[in-house]
Fold this sequence. Notes:
The complex is a heterodimer of chains A (about 130) and B (about 110).
Chain A: E1 3-7, E2 11-12, E3 18-25, E4 34-41, E5 48-54, E6 64-67, E7 75-80, E8 85-90, E9 99-107, E10 117-120, E11 124-128
Chain B: E1 9-12, E2 18-23, E3 35-40, E4 47-50, E5 64-69, E6 72-77, E7 86-94, E8 96-99, E9 103-107
Parallel strand pairs in B: 1-9
Antiparallel strand pairs in B: 2-6, 3-4, 3-7, 5-6, 7-8, 7-9
Amino acid sequence: QLHLQESGPGLVKPSETLSLTCSVSGVSISSNTYLWGWIRQPPGKGLEWIGNIYPGGSSSYGGTTSYDPSLKSRVTISIDTSDNQFSLRLTSVTAADTAIYYCASLFLPRNAVANWFDPWGQGTLVTVSS
Amino acid sequence: QSALTQPASVSGSPGQSITISCTGTINDVGSYHLVSWYQQHPGKAPKVIIYEVFKRPSGVSARFSGSKSGNTASLTISGLQAEDEADYYCCSYAGGFIFGTGTRVSVL
C-alpha cells in the first residue's frame, strides 16, 4: 500500500530556502507508473499546486519536472532513489509561503495523462518568520 | 493561471442532494476531461473522491457523482449525511494543475 510522509523544518526565516522531503513506502520511487507532486495550503485558504516530477527522462534532478508558472523561478523538485524519497526546495521565501505542504502521488494510466492526486501525505506546516 | 471558481459554501439537510459547481475556462476544464474532486475534513489531508470527471476510486461512496458541461464541472452529493460536512475542492489538468477555490459543505 502506497504511503507518503513529509518531513522538514517547521520554521524558515524570510529570504532563506525551504527544504522538505517526502518519504515514499509501498512502491519504488523509480516506478514508471507514478508521478510525484507537491501541493500547499496557506492557513485557512485553498489548495495550490506547486509542481510534479516523473522519474523518467534525463535530468540532474532525477526526473522530468513541471512547475506552477508563478513559482517556477523559485522551485526545484528532485528525486533521491537511494532513499526512496523526493524533495522540494523553495528559495527566497516570504510570509506568503507560510502553508501546510503536502506531498502526493499521481498514477500514470497507460496511454494517458496522470491527472489525480492519490494518496496524500498528512502534510507539514511550514511557517516563514524571523 | 487563476483558480477555478467554486461557491464558498453550500448547505443541505440530511438526505437531500446538493451540487457544487466548478467553473474554469476553455483552457482548463473546457479542454480536458480530467477534473478531479477532493474532500478535506478539518485538520486532515485531502482525499480524492472523483477523478476524470465522473470516476469514483474504490471505496468512495456511490452517493458522490461528477459531471461536466462546457467549462463547468459539478459534484453532486446525494443522500447528504453528517459525515459529508467538509471542504471540497475541484482540480483540473491544464498542462499543470489548477485547483478550485473550495466549497464548505454544511449539513443542517
